[in-house]
Design brief:
6-stranded antiparallel beta sheet, two-stranded antiparallel ribbon
């Protein structure tokens, strides 16, 4: 999945205000605003396989929050990682060595605490699937037990069994 495909997919997932009929208006506004992605003025050429880098460099993702994942509007690098967002309070980054999306210890920026996805494309696909499931749960289209089972199965989208444990606590 490319950054452009991801932004199109997210835009298509923005729920209608009618979906929020039994939820507080403030909740609706916050929920919809967290799916906001806007193209930045100047485009920077980024290879398609660097979808997350493209997303952060060429789109305003400062409000984008999907489940417990959020984005920063800039990239920060060290020798081992390219940091682009957070998973709750923990930084998430692209490993320069393996190209995986990883969660980093906030107290030690060189220590991986979990593996999230095998690459940038899989990570964006994973986020789309998480958002689809979140909406089904939020709008009462599935119950929490089915949601839990579906979350566990997302490891295939992330890239395989290596990512299963990380996704079970979503």
């Amino acid at each position: 999945m490319t950054a452009s495909e991801f932004t199109t997919a997210i835009q298509s997932l923005i729920p209608s205000k009618d979906n929020f009929y039994n939820l507080p208006k403030d909740f609706m506004e916050i929920y919809i605003s967290q799916l906001s992605i806007r193209k930045k003025g100047n485009s920077i050429d980024v290879p398609p396989e660097d979808a997350v880098i493209d997303l952060v460099m060429n789109y305003d993702v400062s409000n984008l929050t999907i489940g417990i994942f959020s984005f920063k509007n800039e990239l920060i690098e060290n020798d081992n990682f390219i940091f682009f967002g957070t998973r709750e309070a923990f930084p998430i980054a692209i490993s320069k060595k393996s190209k995986e999306i990883v969660e980093i210890d906030w107290a030690d920026e060189n220590r991986v605490i979990s593996f999230i996805a095998k690459n940038q494309s899989n990570f964006l696909c994973l986020l789309i699937s998480i958002e689809e499931l979140n909406q089904k749960l939020t709008f009462g289209l599935i119950d929490s037990n089915i949601y839990r089972d579906a979350i566990v199965s997302l490891y295939e989208i992330a890239g395989g069994i290596k990512y299963k444990n990380q996704l079970e606590d979503l």
